[in-house]
Specification:
Elements (H helix, E strand, L loop, with lengths): L1 H16 L4 H25 L3 H27 L14 H23 L6 H4 L1 H8 L3 H17 L18 E3 L2 E3 L3 E8 L5 H5 L5 E7 L12 E4 L4 E4 L8 H18 L6 H8 L15 E6 L10 H15 L5 E5 L14 H16 L8 E6 L6 H14 L3 E4 L29 E3 L4 H16 L4 H17 L13 H6 L3 E5 L5 H9 L4 E4 L1 H6 L3 H12 L1
Parallel strand pairs: 3-4, 3-13, 4-7, 7-8, 8-9, 9-10, 10-12, 12-13
Antiparallel strand pairs: 1-2, 5-6, 6-11
Helix pairs in contact: 1-2, 9-10, 9-11, 11-12, 12-13, 13-14, 14-17, 17-19
Bound molecules: flavin mononucleotide (FMN).
Flavin mononucleotide binds next to β3, β6 and α18.
Enzyme class: oxidoreductase
Catalytic activity: (S)-dihydroorotate + a quinone = orotate + a quinol
EC number: 1.3.5.2
Length: 547
């Protein structure tokens, strides 16, 4: 009966607490169960029934007899048997001391281990994971699952001491003031399992996905390979995805938990109130000063030649996911889905992006998600880059993520070195290459996109701009300093396109170079897998030191 009361207490407490952060949930469950358990015990002790008392007496008698027999056996035992050791004086005290020290050591270990600044995260954990999981994909799954479980119990690594609190790294993106200009790139949290654990390690942007409309397996394994000497990875995952509906469920549950924890209640209206800004946090990230990006892609089985079907794929994902995103990212640059990168040609890209922008505008939410397109570093000929920029302006998307993995094989670092023998077959694996060797090219490409996006060459856009300027002049004839119509004017008239940089960023100097080239956010993936969970904190610290 006591046990079943406790179980009931766990269940009822669990139902209500489901909508709270898990660390709090467990505490609530435990404390409610404990209260009920105590009251059940109280029932037993305060109202003993006569037959229960009788049974208790019998049990006491039986126990006493057994004890007598046991004492007799000890007395009759052969003399050479070792005499029982009498407890030492002060034994209890030393036991207490030992327990207290152990508890203290555990506490200190926990505080240290859950701080992103702990050097164990940089120097011990990544090599240990590589040793335990020679298959890089298994290491990826292990890390995501470990972070998920640690976050559930509030034991996950996090940035302590609010280093962004001084505002030194604050930056404006889409009208939001972000706490810092660092992001986690797509693919690390493919199924939106750990956005909150990732936010807690310090970035202002977390990109989850890419997700496809229908679930798909991706390419056969093995499909992720390490080049440890280069701190680089080659992957050909092929956009393995649990599908947009699954991700929508996960993100909705996250929103429901948040709304309940904030005191908005459990009903659907509570979620709408959070989505419409009543909690004073962005509707996607649910964290002040941070934004959640959700990346969408097409299914491999959708024919590359059927633009209408491809548009339907992207729009399907947007319809399911836009509600939970601050930014939607259109992936047309993964090298591992055949034909995907061909969608970066101006006409198909404009058609796809226009469809996504239209669908994003239709989301039932006060503020609509912004839309960005993630482009490949390999489509870098002048006409390709300017064609993509035309599609960006033509479709009305809000920005570009410049960079992804590359099909090329960059020269090893340091310059002039050669790969160790065991890595030479690995570098020939098919797939997208990522790692610090990409950084210089990313910075150069960001600068080119910045220049082109700031001076759109679309004639119709310039015509619209001139018309608007003329209207503005007519409306405000007395206004002084009306800006002259110049090449850079459309940027101010139509809103400057935002750029995020992704590719090879692993330290503060590289992040700063990307920002100086015109990016608003420097994103990381491979750098975190080699540098550990404290990489974002370290890069931000290096950025601060450069200021
Ligand atoms: C294992 C792995 C999986 C990735 N999955 C995706 C993905 O699903 N979608 C995407 O747009 N980029 C994906 N990327 C690319 C990264 O988001 C990033 O753009 C690229 O790795 C370059 O940045 P980095 O050098 O900081 O890793 C993946 C990269 C890696 C290493």
């Amino acid at each position: 009966m006591v046990a079943s009361s406790a179980t009931l207490a766990f269940r009822s407490a669990g139902l209500r607490a489901r909508a709270l952060p898990l660390a709090q949930r467990s505490l609530i469950c435990y404390s409610r169960a404990a209260v009920q358990l105590q009251s059940s015990l109280r029932c037993y002790s305060s109202e003993p029934k006569p037959e229960t008392a009788e049974k208790a007496k019998e049990a006491v008698k039986e126990t006493a007899e057994t004890a007598k027999e046991a004492t007799k056996e000890i007395k009759d035992a052969p003399k050479e048997a070792p005499a029982p050791v009498a407890p030492k004086k002060g034994g209890r005290r030393s036991k207490k001391f030992f327990c207290t020290s152990l508890a203290l050591a555990l506490l200190v270990g926990l505080v240290y281990g859950s701080d992103t600044r702990a050097s164990i995260h940089r120097y011990a954990v990544p090599p240990l994971i590589r040793l335990l999981y020679p298959d890089a994909e298994e290491a990826h799954h292990f890390t995501v699952e470990a972070l998920k479980q640690l976050h559930r119990f509030g034991l996950h690594p996090r940035e302590r001491g609010d280093p962004d609190g001084d505002g030194a790294l604050a930056t404006e993106v889409f009208g939001y003031t972000l706490s810092n200009p660092i992001g986690i790139s797509g693919g690390l949290d493919k199924h939106a399992d750990i956005p909150d654990a990732l936010f807690d390690i310090g970035p202002a942007i977390v990109e989850v996905g890419g997700t496809t409309p229908l679930p798909q397996e991706g390419n056969p394994r093995p499909r992720v390979f390490r080049l440890p000497s280069q701190h680089a990875i080659i992957n050909r995952y092929g956009l393995n995805s649990k599908g947009a509906d699954h991700m929508a469920e996960v993100l909705q549950e996250r929103l429901r938990d948040f709304a309940y924890a904030q005191g908005f209640g459990e009903h659907e209206l509570a979620q709408e109130r959070v989505l419409n800004g009543e909690a004073n946090v962005p509707p996607g990230s649910l964290v002040s000063g941070k934004l959640l990006a959700v990346q969408v892609a097409k299914n491999k089985a959708t024919p590359d030649s059927d633009i209408e079907a491809i548009k339907r794929d992207y729009v399907y994902c947007v319809d399911r996911l836009a509600k939970y995103a601050d930014i939607l990212v259109v992936n047309v640059s993964s090298p591992n889905t055949p034909g995907l990168r061909d969608l970066q040609a101006t006409a198909p890209l404009t058609a796809i992006l226009s469809a996504v922008v239209g669908a994003a505008k239709g989301v039932e939410r006060k503020t609509k998600p912004f839309v960005m397109v993630k482009v490949s570093p390999d489509e870098d000929a002048d006409e390709q880059v300017s064609g993509i920029c035309d599609a960006v302006w033509g479709s009305g998307v809000d920005g570009v993520i410049v960079g992804n993995t590359t099909n090329r094989r960059p020269a090893p670092l340091p310059k002039g070195s050669i790969l160790p023998e065991d890595e030479q077959p690995i570098v020939k694996e098919t797939g997208g290459y990522s790692g610090p060797q990409l950084a210089d090219r990313t910075v150069a490409l960001v600068a080119r996109y910045r220049a082109l996006l700031d001076k759109p060459n679309m004639p119709e856009l310039e015509k619209r701009m001139q018309e608007q300027t003329a209207t503005a002049k007519e409306a405000e004839p007395d206004r002084e300093n009306v800006p002259a119509v110049g090449a850079a004017e459309p940027v101010h008239k139509y809103g400057r396109k935002t750029i995020f940089a992704s590719g090879g960023i692993t330290n503060g100097a590289q992040a700063q170079a990307a920002l100086d080239a015109g990016a608003s956010v420097a994103m990381m993936y491979t750098g975190v897998t080699y540098g550990g969970i404290g990489t974002v904190t370290r890069v931000k610290q290096e950025l601060r030191q450069q200021k």
